[in-house]
Backbone:
């Protein structure tokens, strides 16, 4: 019997419980020692406040919390706890106190004491401002020297730090009402976390210009605090109503559905060919086949890439990582000869030097390497009949910090990773809020005329530009920057995948690559050297829930995309495509709580639907044609979506 946790998340480990605290119009969620979603009168003013302890590799210690005390009254709430952080080399203990009042004020204080010398890259508070209703809006900055600055939160994504030496930030949440966040105990600065697809601006302690890692001496306490105050008439607390029904409206034509493709890591192509029928059923329009000249990966698989392209009818795009040597012309010419010998004709090549696979912090020099002009000229000469792509094989952050000359490229590309800074379920889903700003920003610095492709992207981290390697995850947990994300196998990923496609489709992106056929980023189950609960015990071929999303949308590439309006927005995502006389509507519940949705049916039209949810998990994972089999007549207008459920509706 498969558990609900495995159905939703691919693991028995569930997220940490939360508790909503209220005092008058002020509310906040307490979770694992941190505050999330600080709201005044229902308006989100701060996304999160947390006291974080990080090691010298930017790994974040999970605090062991004890002596927790919570007091909640109509006019006030308070929280106090003791937390321990450390490993075999170091140990730190801190005491935290949180107090919120009905006047909208909030205080979060922490006193940390290292019980050993404690090596860290950052120990202290981070504050996240949301982007909804904040991006592009006015902000008043109080600096540590007492100076004040009138500015705006960046609308296009800032590759650097928009504000330095911060003592306080004030922004207007509604006309005449200002919220001030004051941070004390050290200097703070802000980074635009939308670079990493986080849905926030992050203000953090200790500027990066200072030396890191640094050592907190044994026995010397560290005291910091964050205070929230409100000026102006307080908005009233929202009523405690029952969950609203979500309505979806299908509107006018807004473009075309993107071509959906797959990434093909060299180590997975043989497994993909072994599952030929199921890969064919996925129907990818393009395959991003990887060649890494740093270690030769992908060279022996060139013939297999060709076979996979022939099997699926998909275009082959070669993602080439060069060695970074001084002569890209000779290196790429040699590669082109090997590709030709394998009788492989790529429709496009995207070329990335090895040096660009690691992030470079703002203000520090880039490593010595051939220029964009040299690399792209060498690629044009080696592959004259292929489209040329460039940008970054990693993430938008690196593209934003090192922008290629668009005039030398046929298209620009990058990937995304939704768990660079936070791997909990809500933070990962919230990355959808940041993606439209990545589109806006890329067009702002490269122009709107260049073709813009995304991927391959997935829940797991394909390459870690910020450390030596991706993080290990032996326990099937939610781990930042790990290749192994158990949610890839759960309904969570089906909802995330649908929302990801819908978000980039609305942004006009013509081509999106998602995950891989098999493996840790896969849509089709195969036996691996890491545990896969439920799937490992199966004796029949199986697919993960997101398989059906890709297989359902990929054949519609180039179809007419229709606008969808969801109200209230945030919990449900939708995408609608014309298919002949029919309209195909897909819905995804991005939340762990069920939602009721009104399906838009004009008078006289009929509908059929199929649902991917926990109740149908065993059937949908063991039948790659499940959607076709499960379609049923839909009468009425209301459909209930369980946690992370996905629904396909055919309206005729």
Residues:
């Amino acid at each position: 019997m498969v558990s609900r946790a495995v159905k939703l998340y691919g693991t028995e480990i569930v997220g940490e419980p939360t508790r909503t605290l209220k005092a008058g119009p002020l509310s906040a969620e307490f979770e694992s020692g941190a505050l999330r979603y600080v709201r005044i009168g229902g308006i989100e003013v701060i996304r999160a406040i947390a006291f974080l302890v990080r090691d010298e590799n930017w790994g974040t210690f999970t605090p062991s919390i004890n002596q927790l005390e919570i007091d909640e009254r109509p006019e006030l709430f308070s929280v106090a706890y003791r937390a321990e952080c450390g490993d075999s080399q170091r140990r730190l203990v801190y005491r935290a106190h949180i107090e919120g009042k009905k006047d909208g004020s909030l205080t979060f204080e922490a006193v940390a004491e290292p019980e050993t010398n404690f090596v860290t890259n950052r120990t202290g508070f981070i504050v996240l401002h949301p982007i909804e209703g904040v991006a592009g809006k006015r902000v008043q900055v109080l600096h540590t020297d007492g100076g004040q600055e009138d500015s705006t939160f960046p609308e296009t994504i800032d590759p650097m730090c928009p504000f330095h030496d911060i003592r306080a930030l004030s922004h207007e949440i509604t006309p005449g009402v200002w919220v001030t966040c004051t941070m004390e105990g050290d200097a703070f600065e802000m980074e635009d976390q939308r670079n990493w697809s986080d849905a926030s601006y992050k203000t953090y302690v200790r500027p990066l210009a200072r030396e890191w890692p640094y050592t907190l001496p044994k026995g010397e306490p560290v005291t910091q605090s964050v205070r929230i105050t409100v000026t102006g008439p307080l908005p009233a607390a929202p009523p405690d109503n029952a969950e609203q029904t979500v309505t979806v409206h299908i509107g006018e034509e807004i473009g075309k559905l993107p071509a959906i493709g797959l990434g093909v890591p060299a180590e997975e192509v043989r497994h993909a060919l072994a599952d030929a029928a199921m890969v064919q059923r996925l129907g990818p329009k393009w395959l991003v086949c990887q060649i890494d000249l740093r270690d030769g990966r992908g060279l022996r698989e060139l013939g297999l890439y060709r076979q996979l392209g022939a099997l699926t009818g998909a275009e082959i795009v070669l993602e080439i990582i060069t060695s970074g040597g001084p002569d890209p012309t000779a290196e790429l010419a040699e590669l082109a000869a090997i590709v030709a010998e394998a009788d492989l004709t790529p429709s496009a090549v995207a070329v990335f030097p090895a040096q660009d696979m690691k992030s470079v912090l703002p203000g520090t020099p880039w490593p010595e390497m051939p220029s964009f002009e040299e690399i792209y000229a060498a690629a044009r000469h080696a592959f004259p009949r292929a489209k040329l792509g460039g940008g970054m094989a990693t993430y938008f952050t690196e593209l934003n910090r090192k922008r290629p000359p668009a005039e030398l490229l046929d298209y620009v590309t990058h990937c995304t990773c939704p768990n660079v800074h936070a791997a909990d379920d809500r933070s990962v889903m919230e990355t959808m809020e940041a993606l439209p700003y990545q589109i806006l920003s890329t067009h702002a610095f490269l122009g709107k005329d260049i073709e813009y492709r995304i991927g391959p992207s997935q829940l797991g981290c394909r390459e870690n530009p910020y450390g030596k390697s991706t993080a290990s995850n032996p326990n099937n947990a939610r781990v930042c920057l790990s290749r192994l994300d158990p949610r890839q196998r759960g309904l969570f990923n089906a909802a995330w995948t649908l929302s990801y496609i819908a978000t980039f489709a609305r942004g006009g992106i013509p081509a999106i690559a998602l995950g891989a056929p098999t493996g840790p980023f896969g849509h089709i189950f195969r036996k691996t050297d890491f545990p896969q609960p439920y799937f490992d015990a199966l004796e029949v071929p199986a697919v993960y829930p997101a398989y059906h999303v890709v297989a359902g949308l990929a054949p519609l590439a180039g179809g007419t995309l229709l606008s969808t309006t969801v109200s209230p927005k945030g919990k449900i995502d939708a995408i609608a495509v014309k298919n002949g006389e029919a309209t195909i509507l897909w819905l995804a519940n991005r939340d762990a709580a069920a939602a009721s949705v009104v399906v838009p049916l004009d008078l006289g039209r009929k509908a059929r639907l199929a649902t991917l949810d926990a109740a149908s998990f065993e059937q949908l994972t063991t039948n790659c044609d499940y959607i076709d089999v499960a379609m049923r007549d839909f009468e009425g207008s209301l459909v209930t979506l369980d946690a992370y459920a996905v629904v396909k509706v055919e309206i005729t």
